[in-house]
Amino acid sequence: MANAGIEPGPVIHETLARAPQLVYDVRDDRWVDPWSHGLLDPLGVLEAAVEASWSLARAFLATDVLVHRTWPASSAEP
Questions:
Q1: H-only helix segments in 1-78
Q2: What are the residue ranges spanned by the domains of the chain?
Q3: Which of 39, 40, 28 is nearest to 4 (CA)?
Q4: Distance between CA 70 and CA 67 in Å, rounded?
Q5: Which of 23, 56, 67, 69 lies most in the core, judged by the most C-beta atoms within 10 Å?
C-alpha cells in the first residue's frame, strides 16, 4: 500500500471492521469483493502450487541421487 501512495494504517484498522470476504482494491481506492472484481486468479494460484511442488520433488530426487547411503552389514551375532 505504501508503494501505491496510500497510508496503510487506516486501511488496516478498517479491515478489522469490514466483512472478511472484502478486500481493499488499491487501484480503485475502495473495498470490493475479490471474486467479482477479478482480484483473485485461481489459475495463478494453481500454477504457483504446481511449480513449487515440482521444484520440491526435483530437489528430493537430486538429493537422493547425490547421497549414497551405505547400510551397515548385518551382524552374525545376536
A1: 8-17, 42-66
A2: 1-36, 41-67
A3: 28
A4: 10
A5: 23
Three-state DSSP state, 46 = helix
Calculate mean pLDDT across residues 27-51.
Answer: 84
Secondary structure (3-state) at 25: strand
pTM to 2 decimals? 0.47
Strand pairing category for 30-32 and 23-25: antiparallel
Query: Which amino acid is present at 63?
Result: T
Cell 511442488 identifies what position? 53
Flag whether pLDDT at 75 surpasses 60: no
On whether the CB atoms of residues 31 and 23 are closer than 8 A, the answer is: yes
